[in-house]
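EI: anyone free to look at a 252-residue chain?
SC: sure, send it
EI:
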Amino acid sequence: MADEIKCDACGNMTQMGRMLCLHCGEKLHTSSADKKKAAKAGSARARKANPLAWFFGLLVKAVFKGVASAVALVVRLVVFALVIGLCGLVVWPVNLDADAGGEEEVLKSRAKLGSLILAEKKNEAGKEVFSEAELNGYLSALVEENRAGGGGDQLQGMEAEILESEIVLNVKTLAGPIPMSMTLNFYPKVGNKEFDAEVLRARIGHMPMLGPGKKFVQDKIKVIFSELKEEREVLEGLESITLSDGALKVIN
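SC: here you go
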């Protein structure tokens, strides 16, 4: 009787494991306890009928269950590693192989910028060549002036690498307590009293930014330079910018 279930419709007993009553054909309503009991009874019958097949079936089931658990664990570990790797790329700062300028280069760059400003005011032609060291000296001075003027410590540094085909600008900031860098590869475009840039690539840390991400980096760097009134006026008044490795030539 332990292997039978009572039909609710006709009251007769039917062998456990069947879906329909053998006497009236009604569906048998089995509880979870009954199902477990039926499975246990079926397993006992299979064990008695063919012990070797039952053992191998149990072994295969255990192996498949172990493999599924191992695969799920590997997938979790891979996803975790990818997330950690992406975060690492974002917070891994970029350092350019650029010539850093000192106090002498700062003075030279300021004198050349002053010459361009004066030429612009007099409506005269001006021409200057800025070395990479002079440009970086000037950028470093801007960072220090920002701190001294109460701009805070969010802006940590700026540097540029001048190549024949592009300028690589790297801005180091703080995102809360975490140091980060934003890098923009661009080619300057001037003319008609406007200054623009053709953005070639953008990165946050070592993570390349595409589409909206590239625009995000571009907008963030634009905000940093938006307060530089005199420098912006000079850039907007330029007629041409010519790049060479380690220097840029400007004409207004």
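EI: The helical segments are 32-49, 51-91, 103-121, 132-148, 212-225, 229-236.
SC: 👍
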